[in-house]
Amino acid sequence: MNQTNNKCLAVVTGASSGIGLELAREFDKGGFDLIVVSNSNKIEEAASTLRSMGAQVEAVRADLATYDGVEELYRSLAGRPVDCAAINAGVGVSGDFTNETDLRAELNLIQLNVISPVHLSKLLLRDMMQRGEGRILFTSSIAGNMPAPFDAVYGASKAFLTSFAQAVRNEIKDSRVTITVLMPGATETDFFHRAGMDDTKLGTSKKDDPAEVAHEGYEALMAGKDHVVAGSFKNKVQSVGGHTLPDPVVAEMHRKQSEPGGANR
């Protein structure tokens, strides 16, 4: 990447596919240079696709579920100011927490969904605050607004991320640095297959277009909004329900959608 030009720079994590790749496309349309990040070997292919659209793109393959992976990404910036960062990388683990799911996979989830965003945003926010400008978008989920049976660790990770982002936004409210939370519902990506949810009602349901979700997230970020519930109207209803209905009621509603084998009942 040309480090001497005057174009703005956007960093997008989890950019090899899904919402992350679509967010990268949005930044490309907005005239940004890009650093796209993933631990997948598909990141080079994604970068090549973005370059064909006219963007200047650097691909970084790093495991953001590790401390060293986040530090590697930060070093790759080589001191160039980051104008926007979409902290989007995340993973799900689905199933019965007590009897079925793998602890190592859940600890990896916590590393990627919780610890990595804290680590990366700490580094980026310090630079942005020194410069007096910048924007960060965290991809959370409407699952963070409710207890999520059979997605217990995932839902809790997104609840943490939403709370963390809104708290830090308030801390820096008198600056020109903004934080926005993107809260999609079920979106047509590889997430459900990778999380082991192919046999759930949620996994087999109609899902939102990741391009539309990314567009709403990008627009909210550039407008400096605190959050956006993206996608279908149903997502907005579920998000409100997560805040207003009793937790046991919401948990039972989520269970019906996420219970293993539920798609066949």
Give structural notes:
Helices cover about 50% and strands about 15% of the residues. It has about 260 residues and is an alpha/beta fold. The chain has one domain (about 10-265): NAD(P)-binding Rossmann-like Domain (Rossmann fold). Helix 1 crosses helix 8 (about 210-225). The radius of gyration is 18 Å and the shape is globular.
**Which series of helices and strands comes N to C?**
EHEHEHEHEHEHHHEHH
Give the overall silhouette: globular
Question: Rg from C-alpha positions?
Answer: 18 Å
Q: How many discrete domains?
A: 1
CATH architecture: 3-Layer(aba) Sandwich
CATH class: Alpha Beta
Topology of helices and strands:
Layout: E1 9-13, H1 18-29, E2 33-38, H2 43-52, E3 57-61, H3 67-76, E4 84-87, H4 103-131, E5 134-139, H5 152-171, E6 177-183, H6 191-194, H7 201-204, H8 210-223, E7 227-229, H9 233-244, H10 247-258
Parallel strand pairs: 1-2, 1-4, 2-3, 4-5, 5-6, 6-7
Helix pairs in contact: 1-8, 3-4, 4-5
